[in-house]
Design a protein that fits this description.
Largest sheet: 4 strands, mixed
Strand content: under 5%
Shape: globular
Number of helices: 26
Number of strands: 8
Radius of gyration: 27 Å
Strand order of the largest sheet: 2-1-6-5
Distance between the termini: 28 Å
Helix content: 55-70%
Structural class: mainly alpha
């Protein structure tokens, strides 16, 4: 215990442990990234048939990849399992047709008859030869030439016209004549042919393909590898060991949660002295107004996407694809999610930093306004640019100002640069506000953690600049998941933890030393599995089996802190009832909905990220599941259930702290309705559609192969399609009973805050 009157100190081992975990994790991740460059599937300089005629070249593959990206086809279907779900997995669909065409060519060559006319002995011989043909790697690394057999060459010729026809008149959710000319169709087919070759051709010196035999297609000889089974089993051992170790530590100490150290904690927590609202804090109300508007627009777009799943040809008779094609709607849906969640945390940081620093730097208000203007430019500029890009209206600058094409990192490179510049400017504002706190020994640790988390948010967006339109797709997917997993799921979550800690300190629910300890603990637990666990996204994206081993074992450890979040939820329930020493009322009475959203975060983190995430992270499950509806089942429960609810908790806290009792009273009933509607709607979406439909689709993968389970023949028929219609109940609840009332409440609160003149308003931050 600390001496009376002196600030409590944390052991330096907390800091050392967090640093050690980061060094260890990033050492593994950097090694795997280096290996990605070495082991990525090669792009042949020339692909030739048995007579030596050139079928396509590396230049054609590069142009085809540009076509795939420019028109946002990764937001329509997927490639190597990653992307959207309305269209096919383009690589798997090409492989399936390649196997069928090769089979037919071999039947005609060997027996001079159609494949369906073969007897059992003949069919067995042909099917065995199909596997041998497709699994044999005929790429010559010395010359850069890939040799195609007659069947493979025939497939390339046939599929050029098939893919051209598909994108001209048959692609669900896309307007007719989507590609512009035969050259684009041929280039796209070359890219898909290469992506298919990488999934089936055996990696040199190995018995599996460049994608570890993904996708599952027995006709092409693609079946699970022994490594997928082995590392799934070993990952369970890691999970049990991790749970045992952490529960042992929690059993030994009684001060690792939000409740703090029972030996040091006073009998009653007192509310900190009220602090005057600063001009920049009042400006953050505008940030939260932007949050609710972007959130509402994002949810409406989600409704349009859900309708495409039941009626891809139109919207109750109207051809929606001509106005809002599926790939554009999905791009905007995902991008707006990142924008509104990030804006909430940026606004929360600007609001809380002066509370910790104790004073407002000169000109901070105008800096916040400038940042808000820059945010508007990036948001609306990138959205409009993506519309122009997928409609081929930007010429050669599509990659810079249009649709960059990689899921979650769709905005053009120019808009990315502006976003990065905005983050740097935000970091400067944060530094200015936090500097005074470093002169106070009692605040120094918490201020340092706040600053570190802010710096990490900026730094870990930088991998978005490490690829171009023609970079090998395996390398692109490597860096893309540095953004998705490390930036969004890793360090943004750490930053959110710091925000929650500061909220609790300001409400008087915990002391600064307890908040700092929880931040370190969360960082150690999250990053111990989370950094190296990034590799679970790379099982089947052109990397060696080592990524599977590391990804499976460390991603299993990610479940450990998610399990412990159930304890966080219990702590939140108890803390909101803690009595104020001065008034005797519950400390969190006026911040009830911020705390309620945090309780929801604990629930969805356990279910969405923990249960559903672990289910699909096992390599053997992921092999069959990746890109099925079980993926958005995890995505919705984790992305919105965790990061979205965290953002809404920050919004509710800051708006309540800014608003007078009268202004909040007008808004609170809508906030309350929105809370229950959002959680009920998300639950109904999962129970009625996403989970059961995902199980049905997973079963069809095992039964009929991956390509079939992703085809319209499956997704638009039967019980799977029925669940898509039933989902309407969940979507309607989330939208009408959740998002709309919450947005109304947010708008009313902001209007009340802005209506008050600073000199007339109640000028204190309403902590409780």
């Amino acid at each position: 215990m600390s001496e009376p009157g002196t600030p409590a100190r944390l052991s330096p081992w907390w800091r050392r442990a967090a640093l050690g975990v980061m060094i260890f994790g990033f050492s593994i991740l950097v090694f795997l990234t280096f290996q990605t460059y070495r082991n990525a599937p090669p792009i042949p300089s020339r692909v030739v048939d048995e007579q030596g005629a050139v079928l396509y070249t590396a230049e054609d593959v590069g142009k085809g990849q540009e076509v795939f990206f420019k028109y946002g086809l990764m937001e329509h279907g997927s490639l190597w399992g990653h992307g959207a779900y309305l269209g096919p997995d383009y690589s798997a669909a090409y492989l399936r047709r390649e196997a069928e065409i090769t089979r037919d060519a071999l039947a005609a060559s060997r027996f001079d008859m159609a494949a369906k006319a073969l007897d059992n002995t003949q069919r067995g011989a042909v099917l065995a030869e199909v596997k041998d043909v497709l699994k044999t790697n005929r790429y010559d690394a010395a010359t850069g030439v890939l040799l195609y057999t007659a069947g493979e060459a025939r497939s390339f010729a046939v599929q050029q016209s098939e893919w051209a026809d598909y994108l001209a008149k048959g692609a669900p959710g896309l307007p007719a004549s989507y590609l512009k000319g035969a050259d684009e169709a041929r280039a796209l087919t070359a890219f898909l042919a290469w992506s298919s070759w990488a999934t089936r051709a055996s990696r040199p010196g190995r018995t599996y393909s460049y994608t570890n035999n993904w996708p599952y297609d027995p006709l092409a000889g693609n079946t699970p590898t022994p490594q997928a089974i082995l590392w799934s089993a070993v990952s369970l051992v890691f999970l049990l060991c991790g749970l045992g170790a952490v529960l042992f530590v929690f059993g030994k100490f009684d001060f690792l949660g939000w409740k703090g150290d029972a030996g040091e904690r006073p009998a009653h927590l007192s509310l900190p002295k009220a602090t005057a609202l600063t001009p920049s804090q009042r400006i953050t109300a505008l940030f939260f107004l932007v949050v609710v508007l972007l959130f509402l627009l994002q949810v409406f777009l989600g409704g349009a996407l859900a309708h495409y799943r039941v009626e891809p040809e139109g919207f109750y008779g109207y051809s929606l694809a001509n106005l809002l094609p599926y790939n554009l709607a999905r791009t905007w849906h995902l991008q707006l999610a990142v924008f509104w969640i990030a804006t909430a945390w940026v606004g929360g940081g600007l609001f809380l930093a002066p509370l910790l620093g104790g004073q407002e730097p000169k000109g901070q208000k105008w800096g916040a306004l400038a940042l808000l203007g820059a945010l508007a430019v990036v948001v609306f500029g990138s959205l409009f640019g993506e519309y122009l890009g997928i409609n081929n209206r930007l010429g050669e600058v599509w990659f810079w100002f249009g649709h960059q094409g990689s899921e979650y990192v769709d905005l053009g490179r120019f808009w990315q640069i502006l976003l990065a510049a905005g983050l740097v400017f935000w970091l400067l504002l944060m530094v200015r506000a936090l500097l005074p706190a470093f002169r106070d020994e009692g605040k120094r640790e918490l201020a340092g953690l706040f600053l570190f988390a802010s710096v990490a948010v900026v730094i870990f967006y930088l991998p978005a600049f490490l690829w171009g339109a023609r970079t090998n797709f395996a390398v692109i997917d490597n860096w893309r998941f540095w953004i998705i997993h490390l930036w969004v799921e890793g360090f943004f979550e750490l930053f959110a933890t710091v925000l929650v800690a500061l909220m609790f300190v300001h409400m008087g629910l915990v002391r600064a030393v307890t908040a700092s300890r929880v931040i370190y603990l969360d960082a150690i637990l999250y990053l111990a599995g989370g950094i190296a666990g990034t590799a679970h996204h790379w099982y089947f994206t052109g990397q060696e089996a080592a990524s599977m081993a590391i990804g499976a074992c460390f991603s299993a450890l990610e479940v450990v802190p998610l399990t412990l979040l159930t304890l966080d939820a219990w702590d939140f329930l108890k803390l909101q009832k803690a009595p104020c020493a001065d008034c005797g009322k519950p400390l969190a009475l006026k911040q009830k909905w911020a705390v309620m959203f945090l309780i929801a975060v604990g629930f969805w983190n356990f279910l969405g990220a923990g249960v559903f995430g672990f289910l699909i992270n096992l390599p053997i499950v992921s092999y069959f599941e990746m890109g099925t509806t079980l993926t958005p089942n995890h995505g919705h429960a984790a992305m919105f259930g965790v990061f979205g609810m965290l953002a809404l908790a920050v919004l509710a806290y800051c708006l309540r702290a800014l608003a007078s009792d009268g202004a909040w009273g007008r808004a609170e009933k809508f906030i309350r309705a929105g809370f229950w509607g959002l959680n009920a709607g998300l639950g109904l979406m999962i129970v009625l559609n996403l989970f059961p439909a995902g199980v049905l689709q997973l079963y069809d993968v095992v039964l009929n192969g991956y390509a079939h389970a992703r085809s319209v023949e499956f997704t638009m028929t039967g019980l799977f399609h029925t669940t898509e219609w039933i989902r309407l109940a969940g979507d309607a609840t989330l939208l009408l009973a959740g998002a709309v009332p919450f947005a109304i409440g947010g708008i009313l609160a902001v209007a009340g805050i802005l209506k008050e003149r600073p000199e007339d308003a109640q000028k204190t931050v309403h902590a409780h």
